[in-house]
Each structure stands twice: as structure tokens, then as C-alpha cells.
Amino acid sequence: EPEVTQTPSHQVTQMGQEVILRCVPISNHLYFYWYRQILGQKVEFLVSFYNNEISEKSEIFDDQFSVERPDGSNFTLKIRSTKLEDSAMYFCARALTGDTDTQYFGPGTRLTVL
Amino acid sequence: KNQVEQSPQSLIILEGKNCTLQCNYTVSPFSNLRWYKQDTGRGPVSLTIMTFSENTKSNGRYTATLDADTKQSSLHITASQLSDSASYICVVSNTGFQKLVFGTGTRLLVSP
């Protein structure tokens, strides 16, 4: 199974601060996704990204969130002004192709907002 | 509303025993159904993917079934091992979209 890495593994931040979560790409994977999982709850879709554009986003993905993959480097999720309720595990997932392909999940970044 | 419901919420079985986990969904239009295993504090790991035309798919000791008419799926684990202790998540994908709808998962504990 392709290895998916995320950095950092754990991020602690103060409310109102900006955080950037990173996902290390595999060169032949074209589809990228971010999910979050609040402690004890189910995994929730945030956004999908293909060809350097957002292809779909959920209602959770509001204006405080943004994603980019500058110059084919890390795939990032930015939260501009964190809130207490943003505390969660954030998972990056990648897929070689789209809908019917396996999505490979990273180990996640645990975000704690104080 | 697109939803995925799983049962039971949690399950404890003895090592070596079999078990079956259930998944009901209302996602429409349907593209495929996936079962993932998630160890505590880790990302989900894919076990199976089934499309509309597939009724069953196996991956080692894991066998998933799909009834697209009743919108139900099951995951059967044979000869359970201690390492099977994890959450098992049913995930359904919409046709033409890349968004996955996750169930709440079944937490399985395999006891020695």
C-alpha cells in the first residue's frame, strides 16, 4: 500500500492562530482529499482537489479553510483563524484515479486548539 | 439526506470466532461501497471496494457483501485475531463525485 505521510503529527495552537497542515504527495497520485475526525465522531469529508483545483467541498469547508499544492510540492490545508471546535484529527488521502479507486489515507495530524 | 448507518456500535468477540458487521445506506446516486479498518489514532485502511454490480468481495479473512436493492452491506470476519481489534467503517460514494460518506463505524474488540 502506498505510503502517505503527513506533517506535523501533532499541532497545538492558540485560538485565532493560523495553522498549515501538510501532506506529502506521491508523484503519480492525482486526486487529493482532506478529511477531519473530531474525537469520538465519524470521519467527515472536507474537500477534494484535482489538477490544482478544488473539485468538491463540503459545508464544513468554509472561508477559513483553504487548500493548495504549490508547484507540485506538498498538498496543504490552511486554517486561517482556528477555533476551539477545529480540534480534530485531520487526514489527507490520495488516489491514483477518481471515484472507483482506493483512497490511501495518511496517519493524520492531531490539531489541538487551546 | 445521504447517510450511512452501521450496527452494532460495538462488539466483543473471542479470538478465533467469526463476526458480521452491518451497514445500511441512503446515499444516492450510488457509485461504490467501501469498508475501511481504522486502528485507534491512525488513518483508515481500505479493505474492500464494491461497485453496484458486485455482490461479494473478499480480502483474506474479510468478506464484504452488497445488496444494492436493499442498500445493505455486511463485512464478515473469519477466524478473528487480536489484531482485528479496531473500528470498521462503511463508506459510500456518490456517482460522479469524489465525496465519501462515512458511517460511524463499529468498534470491534477481539478478546483472548
Overview of this protein structure:
The complex is a heterodimer of chains A (114) and B (112). Chain A is an all-beta fold. Chain A is built from no helices and eleven strands. In chain A, the strands form two sheets. In chain A, strands 2, 4, 5, 6, 9, 10 and 11 form a seven-stranded mixed sheet that branches. In chain A, a hairpin with a 6-residue loop joins strand 7 and strand 8 (75-79). In chain B, strand 4 (30-38) and strand 5 (45-51) form a beta hairpin. Chain B has strands at residues 4-7, 10-14, 19-25, 30-38, 45-51, 56-59, 62-67, 72-77, 86-94, 100-102, 106-111. In chain B, the strands form two sheets. In chain B, strands 2, 4, 5, 9, 10 and 11 form a six-stranded mixed sheet that branches. In chain B, strands 1-3-8-7-6 form a five-stranded antiparallel sheet, with no helix packed on it. Chain B contains no helices and eleven strands. Chain B is an all-beta fold and 112 residues long. The model of chain B has no long low-confidence stretch (mean pLDDT 92). Chain B is globular. The chains are: A mainly beta (114), B mainly beta (112). Chains A and B meet through strand 5, strand 9 and strand 10 of A and strand 4, strand 5 and strand 10 of B.
